[in-house]
Amino acid sequence: MGHPHGIGIIGLGAISKAYLDTLTLAPGIRIAAVADLDSARARAVADELPDASALTVSELLASPDVDTVLNLTIPAAHAEIALAAIAQGKRVYGEKPLAAVLHEAVDVMVAADAAAIGVGCAPDTVLGTGIQTARVAIEDGLIGRPTAATAVMASPGHELWHPNPDFYYRPGGGPLLDMGPYYVTALVHLLGPIRSVVGASSTPRATRTIGSGPREGEVIGVDVETHVTGVLEHHSGALSTLTTSFDSARTTAAPIEVHGEAGSLVVPDPNTFAGDVRLFRVGDDDWRTLAPSAGYLDSARGVGLIDLVTATPERPARASGAVALHVLEAMTALLESARSGARIALETTVERPLLVPLTARDEWLRSE
Fold first, then answer.
1. Residue 368: what pLDDT?
2. Domain boundary among 97, 121, 145
3. Most CB atoms closer than 10 Å: which of 121, 207, 232, 245?
């Protein structure tokens, strides 16, 4: 990893604080530079960091002090920034999705493979104790052979709380591409890669009304599917049923359930790092909560980047570009299937990332 490993952050919106809160505690990492279209914002962030410079995007990409680029730009810029970082010989870790459209994500991974440069991508929530403990339970045979899963994300829509929700209702938005990465990535960790998908979708409302902020009461148009559901066929033979919706007031459904021949698991929200994993085996009288048995303890946004920069050939990055590409293809194929009515076979596949051993916060922060 090097001492210290220089990180350059491009894009200093709200999510950047979550990353900074984690990365500034890691002794093997130094925030070397920051850049934003708003140069005043970049200067303000740099002033709060001991060794960081406020640079332009091009200056940051060329800086010899930057080993890895943390790409926190809007989705439409993800591929452009990733390709520019790779061209400069730098690793890149980005927020989800890997790119706004599938062919751009493919371009990123082709360029990275040709240059032998590592690419990582959120979500890294799946590396916490919630999803990883559930994976141990499955691999230890506590539910027998896995046969099915359900994953549900249901909300009334982000316009109720977001002051500028337009993006969520434009191409590239919607509940599947916005929140689906958490759920589909978790299902890949738990049940393995996906062979094919079949989907259905709807857009019940043509407009939405902004519920907060200076634009409260403004009506915006809806150009995407706001309720998307479908079935994912895993190579293992398990079938996952996925629902993502901006048309639901509330749900009592567990975020994820995994069912097997001998039992069932309730899996916590994949948009969080921890949470209770509950097990019910055939013949039991009630659910029981499993103690955390795997995952990065007390983890937070940025653990996936640390996992990337400390990766080796023997221990590849877990929140990898390859996983993100496969997940993006699964989601875009679901939308295509919903529009065409056809079952769609995926062209990508991926090895399941290695299980994360139960690792204390001090240990993963010190990883070198």
1. 59
2. 121
3. 121
pLDDT of residue 367: 72
Between 321-340 and 102-115, two packed helices, what is the crossing angle to 10 degrees?
A: 160
For residues 69-92, average pLDDT? 96
Instruction: Name the region of 217 (left: φ>0; alpha: ψ -120 to 50; beta: rest).
Output: left
Residue 365 forms part of a structural domain: no
Residue type, 90: K
pTM of the model: 0.95
Per residue, the 3-state secondary structure of 147-160, as one string, reads EEEEEEEECCCHHH
Specify whether 46 is located in the same domain as 130. Answer: no
Question: Crossing angle of helices 129-139/174-191, nearest 10°?
Answer: 40
Average pLDDT, the chain: 96
Q: Look up the CATH number of the domain holding residue 202.
A: 3.30.360.10
Residue at 46 is within a domain: yes
* DSSP strand pairing (207-209 vs 263-267): unpaired
pLDDT of the residue at 172: 80
Residue 248 inside a domain? The answer is: yes
The CA-atom distances, in angstroms, between 174 and each of 63, 104, 112, 245, 343 are: 36, 19, 28, 8, 21
The closest alpha carbon to 163, from 241, 93, 216, belongs to 216
Per-residue pLDDT of 141-186, as tens digits, reads: 999 999 999 999 999 999 999 998 998 898 888 999 999 999 999 9
Number of domains in the chain: 2
Query: Shortest CA distance to 246 belongs to which of 315, 309, 165, 190?
Result: 165
> For the chain, what's the residue count?
368
Residue 244 lies in a domain: yes
CA dist., res. 270 & res. 264, Å (int):
17
Nearest to residue 195, comparing CAs of 234, 150, 237, 148? 234
Q: Which residue, 141, 194, 189, is CA-closest to 295?
A: 189
The reply to whether 226 and 107 lie within a common domain is: no
- Read off the pLDDT of residues 315-342 as tens digits, 9 standing for 90 and up: 999 999 999 999 999 999 999 999 999 9
**Do 91 and 129 have their domain in common?**
no
Q: What is the pLDDT averaged over residues 305-323?
A: 96
Domain housing 162: 125-295+325-345
Percent of the chain with pLDDT over 70: 99
Examine the domain organization and report whether 159 and 111 are in the same domain: no
